[in-house]
Amino acid sequence: xxxxxxxxxxxxxxxxxxxxxxxxxxxxxxxxxxxxxxxxxxxxxxxxxxxxxxxxxxxxxxxxxxxxxxxxxxxxxxxxxxxxxxxxxxxxxxxxxxxxxxxxxxxxxxxxxxxxxxxxxxxxxxxxxxxxxxxxxxxxxxxxxxxxxxxxxxxxxxxxxxxxxxxxxxxxxxxxxxxxxxxxxxxxxxxxxxxxxxxxxxxxxxxxxxxxxxxxxxxxxxxxxxxxxxxxxxxxxxxxxxxxxxxxxxxxxxxxxxxxxx
Amino acid sequence: xxxxxxxxxxxxxxxxxxxxxxxxxxxxxxxxxxxxxxxxxxxxxxxxxxxxxxxxxxxxxxxxxxxxxxxxxxxxxxxxxxxxxxxxxxxxxxxxxxxxxxxxxxxxxxxxxxxxxxxxxxxxxxxxxxxxxxxxxxxxxxxxxxxxxxxxxxxxxxxxxxxxxxxxxxxxxxxxxxxxxxxxxxxxxxxxxxxxxxxxxxxxxxxxxxxxxxxxxxxxxxxxxxxxxxxxxxxxxxxxxxxxxxxxxxxxxxxxxxxxxxxxxxxxxxxxxxxxxxxxxxxxxxxxxxxxxxxxxxxxxxxxxxxxxxxxxxxxxxxxxxxxxxxxxxxxxxxxxxxxxxxxx
Lengths: 262, 345
Prior knowledge:
heterodimer, A: Rossmann fold, Rossmann fold, 2 domains, 4-stranded antiparallel sheet, 10 helices, globular, disordered C terminus, B: mainly alpha, ABC transporter involved in vitamin B12 uptake, BtuC
């Protein structure tokens, strides 16, 4: 069964058609790439999927349920986790606390349990702490667990965002430019970690990325947007050769009307 | 589940510590009564009430990063509620338990619980519609609320309107607020707020302050948590109001003007936004500094206290913009570490 089904989504900001009839499907267990030049609408699409924006037309289904109209917190609770293009960590909190915040579903203690420090509270706190440290280990951040998140180097902050997203135990993980600002050896590590997430945790991954080496190496299927519209979809090999994609990125002339891209 | 430290000893230890705190407060109360003149005792009680106000407000303005400048309104609800309910309950409780210290204590604490509940209800009432607003907009709504409350009391004949509420007896409201009860409630409020702050709820509130969009993306029910923090904070202001009402013969609407809300914000900011111990220090600072400066009047013949006070605030903010404690805790941090590490090991 399809995990994420995006059907004919439109999003308009004033006079700008940010997304126009975008449709695609992501199958469970896939690593799916979403690429396109700057301003193509990739982040807007993430924001529509995660409920930050409401689509102006079209529908979204996740695991068979309609998502349209749900807010970000509800959608996250259903199992869609994300990272942000411009890192949004809880900067003054510790690395461990950043991850533990996302553990609501592991936390059953009521407010009274928390006030009276009951057994339930102690157990929950321990479960959250253990799970958070497992995920930090998975992302290679164990040693930094007690540090303040804002003090971490850029690459570690990106990986911390992934660890925090995984704390939701998501079925689907949306990564918005996870390799941005990483050098090539950090990017290689990231590729391995993304594959590991899918293989060991069974998380389906959709990623937006400008680093083509990363995209071509991890993605099994790629969807290309330009000016809010789908221009191609296929395997990495197909996308590399696709004339529309080359035109959008390089400005090659395919058809008389295709010369707009710069 | 077997906890390494075992569970029952924790409860026993906690009961022991609580009993120790109560005894210590009682002993300190005896000391204060014996060693300080009445005026100084009053300053000490005001400092205790300020601690409750500041620690409660800090949950909203510090931990959650929202901005309320209407907390005097919640304090007023608690003060009037506690005073009125206390007056109504006293005869019945005295009838059941026999007039005396025990009946007074029961009446007083019941009236404080009612005050907390009423203020909490007011908190929900204001919080639900307004906590979708951010920053300055929320501040304006809370400011308006505080003024509405004061003006309502100003026009309530049953509660004395503008002359204030003095109860039914000619002596005014009973002076229930002893050192022991004020600091007993200080201990209760600090414990509750500390435990909420250092738990998943507190962690989520901090996350809302740090980045609300990211907090939502992590499935945090932001509006519900903000209303919860607001309600809890209002309840503590209600308790402070009840204690305040019972340390003087009556309460007037002017006691809960806008300036009172500003005072509370000063306490929280001077102490360090986001720090419980900082808020407590700020509360004491505001109560004591103005009183200490009173003696200056003898040398200057004019009352320059407020000028000096304002100057002092400016200097503190220039020298320590993060407040006296920053966002660190004194002492409380140790408990938190031990809680998590010891249990996780």
